[in-house]
């Protein structure tokens, strides 16, 4: 029961009781044998040593990530082929649409409905075991005849974080722990430093011809390619607008 306070709906539901249980568990973990040694090796977080502007950006990153997570649907109808193969209580199903694909590694549940040969339908719950491309292996709680066909599969629960979402959270944590000089990176400084706005710069003509897929690029396109592959720090960020390669230096 205590474990559920830290994951899924138990964590999202909040409430005073949930908060008290998590605080008590955190306190108990600190008293475990060897915990002090491990805690001493952990990177500390001291927001007093972090510039206020950096904290403001980190807060925006975190708030936006929460908003995006809130937009994730809690129920998705998965598009799959009606036919499936079966091994014990494990079904191999083929998905037909990337947008509604099943995901593994989360705490989601499946609501699976089958059509039987006699015209009846049967419903059971299940979970995703693994996903490889279009193929997914799911386990179900009720035995189903191999002659049945899938009527529908619905995923209950929000998708787990993507790799990019996990990396974003890790970057925020690393900046707070002062283990990653994120805002000191030149390209990051150019993006987030509002005190030095970029200025437009007229495109130059490329010194050589550039061919792509058997076609020679025109002068403005070649100039844009030059900026994109340039090693000049002023060309780290460029914006190409319309047919004319207008490049804005940041």
Can you tell me about this structure?
With 250 residues, the chain is α+β, with helices and mostly antiparallel strands. The protein folds into 3 domains: 1-42; 75-156, Thrombin, subunit H; 187-249, no CATH class. It contains 7 helices and 12 strands. It has helices at residues 8-12, 16-29, 35-41, 52-71, 163-176, 186-192, 219-228; strands at 75-78, 85-87, 90-94, 109-115, 121-132, 135-140, 149-156, 199-201, 211-212, 215-216, 240-241, 246-249. A hairpin with a 2-residue loop joins β2 and β3. The longest helix is centred in the first third of the chain and has 20 residues, at 52-71. The chain is flat and about 75 Å long. 10% of the residues are buried. The mean pLDDT is 82.
Quick gist of this model?
By secondary structure, the protein is α+β, with helices and mostly antiparallel strands. It has helices at 8-12, 16-29, 35-41, 52-71, 163-176, 186-192, 219-228, and strands spanning 75-78, 85-87, 90-94, 109-115, 121-132, 135-140, 149-156, 199-201, 211-212, 215-216, 240-241, 246-249. It folds into 3 domains: 1-42; 75-156, Thrombin, subunit H; 187-249, no CATH class.
Average pLDDT:
82
Q: Care to count the β-strands?
A: 12
- Work out the helix count: 7
Per the CATH scheme, the topology name of the largest domain is Thrombin, subunit H
| Name of the CATH first level of the largest domain | Mainly Beta
The biggest beta sheet, please?
Answer: 7 strands, antiparallel
Global structural class = alpha+beta
End-to-end C-alpha gap = 52 Å
N to C succession of SSEs: HHHHEEEEEEEHHEEEHEE
Residue share in helices? 25-40%
| Count of domain modules | 3
Q: Which spans of ≥5 residues are poorly predicted at pLDDT below 50?
A: none
Strand content: 15-25%
What form results from the Cα inertia axes?
Answer: flat
Widest β-sheet, arrangement of strands: 1-7-4-5-6-3-2
- Alpha-carbon Rg, integer: 26 Å
Which CATH-level-2 architecture of the largest domain? Beta Barrel
């Amino acid at each position: 029961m205590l474990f559920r306070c830290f994951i899924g709906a138990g964590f999202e539901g909040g409430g005073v009781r949930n908060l008290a249980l998590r605080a008590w568990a955190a306190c108990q973990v600190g008293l475990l044998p060897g915990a002090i040694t491990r805690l001493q090796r952990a990177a500390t977080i001291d927001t007093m040593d972090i510039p206020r502007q950096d904290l403001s950006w980190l807060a925006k990153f975190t708030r936006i990530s929460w908003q995006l997570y809130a937009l994730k649907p809690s129920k998705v109808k998965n598009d799959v082929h009606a036919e499936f193969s079966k091994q014990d209580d494990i079904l191999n199903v083929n998905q037909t649409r990337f947008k509604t694909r099943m995901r593994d590694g989360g705490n989601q549940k499946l609501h699976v409905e089958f059509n039987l040969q006699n015209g009846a339908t049967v419903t059971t719950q299940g979970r995703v075991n693994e996903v490889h491309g279009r193929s997914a292996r799911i386990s179900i709680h009720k035995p189903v005849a191999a002659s049945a066909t899938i009527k529908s599969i619905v995923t209950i629960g929000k998708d787990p974080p993507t790799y990019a979402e996990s990396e974003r959270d890790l970057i925020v944590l690393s900046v707070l722990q002062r283990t990653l000089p994120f805002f000191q990176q030149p390209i990051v400084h150019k993006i987030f430093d509002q005190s030095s706005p970029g200025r437009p710069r007229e495109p130059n003509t490329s010194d050589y011809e550039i061919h792509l897929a058997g076609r020679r690029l025109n002068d403005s396109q070649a100039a844009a390619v030059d900026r994109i592959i340039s090693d000049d720090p002023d060309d780290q960020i460029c914006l190409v607008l319309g047919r004319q390669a207008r490049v804005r230096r940041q």
